[in-house]
Automatic annotation (TrEMBL):
InterPro entries: Homeodomain-like_sf, HTH_TetR, Tet_transcr_reg_TetR-rel_C_sf, TetR_C. Keywords: DNA-binding, Transcription, Transcription regulation. Pfam families: TetR_C_13, TetR_N. It comes from Amycolatopsis ultiminotia. The keyword S-adenosyl-L-methionine does not apply. Residues 29-48 bind DNA. It comes from the Bacteria. This is TetR/AcrR family transcriptional regulator. The lineage of its organism: Bacteria, Bacillati, Actinomycetota, Actinomycetes, Pseudonocardiales. PANTHER family: HTH-TYPE TRANSCRIPTIONAL REGULATOR YJDC (PTHR47506:SF1), TRANSCRIPTIONAL REGULATORY PROTEIN (PTHR47506). Residues 6-66 form the HTH tetR-type domain. Signal peptide: none annotated. The keyword Translocase does not apply.
Length: 199
């Protein structure tokens, strides 16, 4: 249509996602989103909705993108549970190490911002955190752990995974983050009765 500004939706959503990821929901204004996406305020509202609607789209985009990577990492859990959990953590460590991406995790930031989020956005943030525990629990059960043990390790591993994002924002080095992961993997290896960290 003549006079209507055209834009690539994927590019705009990625730019908005990075803005929310870098600054957080509360500290991101519509003007910030306008600068990040190159769209004026009216275009944002007419094409993408209000700030909450756009944030939900970005959170969904983030959760889908990294959720798929986590699922792929855990896909070998039935045969090699320890290697699968190692690969799960590698998704996070690789994301943190990527110089093109902000530190931290959009899901973790969203969970910490729940007190200032609308009920719909808060519920989606809680759901995204819960998905990590759910996928880990299913993988660990497939790998041979009993229900209660799988649940305990899933909760612990999900908490460690979120803490890596927080620690990265406080300046923890890649070596320090890997050391945190190794503690969890050592405990899991013992629980799985894997001698010499056999995977």
């Amino acid at each position: 249509m003549a006079g209507k500004k055209q834009f690539d939706l994927d590019t705009v959503l990625d730019a908005a996602m990075i803005q929310f990821w870098r600054a957080g929901y509360a500290e991101t204004s519509v003007d910030d989103l306008s600068r990040a996406t190159g769209l004026n305020r009216s275009s944002i509202y007419s094409s993408l909705g209000d700030k909450d609607a756009l944030f939900l789209r970005c959170l969904e985009r983030y959760a889908t993108r990294y959720g798929g990577k986590y699922d792929a990492a855990l896909s070998s859990a039935a045969d090699r549970p320890l290697a699968a959990v190692r690969a799960f953590f590698a998704v996070t460590l690789d994301r943190i190490a990527d110089p093109e991406l902000p530190d931290g995790c959009l899901v973790a930031q969203s969970a910490m911002a729940i007190p200032v989020l609308s009920s719909a956005v808060a519920a989606r943030a809680q759901e995204a955190v819960g998905f990590q525990r759910t996928r880990l629990r299913a993988a660990l059960k497939a790998g041979g752990l009993r229900d209660e043990t799988a649940e305990a390790f899933a909760m612990h591993s999900a908490a460690v995974n979120q803490s890596l994002a927080v620690m990265s924002r406080t300046g923890a080095s890649a070596e320090q983050l890997r050391a945190v992961v190794e503690v969890t993997l050592d405990a899991l290896a013992r629980t799985l009765n894997l001698g010499n960290r056999g995977e």
